[in-house]
Structure prediction request, 472 residues.
Amino acid sequence: MELLSISFKEIMSMEITVAEVMKVVENGFRLKGEGKNEMPAKIGIHPRHDCFIHAMPCWMGGDVDAAGIKWVSGYPPNQAKGLPYITGVLCLNDSETGIPKAIMDANWITAWRTGAASGVCARYMAQPGSETVAVIGLGVQGRTNLMALNEALPELKHVRVFDAFDEQVKKYVTEMSSLLPHLSFENPKNIQETVRGADVVVTCTPILAEPNRFIRREWLKENALALSVDYDSAFD
Amino acid sequence: MELLSISFKEIMSMEITVAEVMKVVENGFRLKGEGKNEMPAKIGIHPRHDCFIHAMPCWMGGDVDAAGIKWVSGYPPNQAKGLPYITGVLCLNDSETGIPKAIMDANWITAWRTGAASGVCARYMAQPGSETVAVIGLGVQGRTNLMALNEALPELKHVRVFDAFDEQVKKYVTEMSSLLPHLSFENPKNIQETVRGADVVVTCTPILAEPNRFIRREWLKENALALSVDYDSAFD
Prediction:
């Protein structure tokens, strides 16, 4: 049996766009809505405090008929060691025989699939004409989420960003303003000002055993769309 | 990041004995008993009728400190296609960083860990002086289970075997009597006679959505140890 191995570099070299990922993710949501998939709630292990490794098996039916699993870890202490917070592998199996066909780096798909999910949500749930987004937490998800929101919101003009680390803010604004030169970037001095008046607020902060839940409901504009990429870590 | 890939052939070439596997499995049971592990109930997908792919993550603590997952499929229709019933991969991660370190074929470990678990059970739960075992279902598990029972039961002399396919019986008896020449093999004409008077009965039949449960309690000797490798598929 041949097991194809696909690295992060090889996936990157395919230059898959966020629009393509959003198309696939939207089709996935549709199949799930039609009951044409099997995706048990994920389970995981926690070998260290606040660290997880999650098992996320899924079968997509319909015209997709794809079976596989993502096995992905999130280790906050890695960042201080110069290692990525997220690492993992994705195994794709032949739906007809169950045989593993490929092992792929799961870092790329975690970054982009997650961002694309926010984009698909925003396409259907954000107020029409949304112009301003607030991004809290400026790591990988802060980047892919903004790329996807930019795809989903044709009127988007202003981006307000916040991170606990100033260095992260500088790097983020430099990178993202070069990728999305039509947007203006602002870094308010606190979170309350960052979310004030934003049409869409997306939080991409670490998922802790005891979340801070630092954003209050009354800070948000009426009918703002709140996208909690970090589950309930950020919203009170 | 380097991901080591270890094939079935490479694992076979290590010539790991069933006694070694039983030692590790027994230590694993002990750590679990001491609460020094994390092993959520497995989840899975079923892309075809009576077929499964199971996600089995686990962290073993104590002196082991090993984290990983087995992602393993069972496809009954594969046998008619000349493909293995069981295929899969095992991913081992660094407990300290979560980073995947190795992808290994999971076929070998599935065969031997499962057999070894029966061996450890028999060592502690079979009647002392057990001389006769009955093996129902003569595939891979029928083989590794017998190897492990032979390790666990120092007085073992007689093996009664049964399988729905005569061809399987012939192959099994030829192979196993050559590996275990001190044992006598017998192939009774039905299951009731196979289990009659046996000190240990082990069933390794396919796991079906609607199990047959063909063995009745009253057929078993008093205090016989029943090892249900196929969950509740075989015992009424």
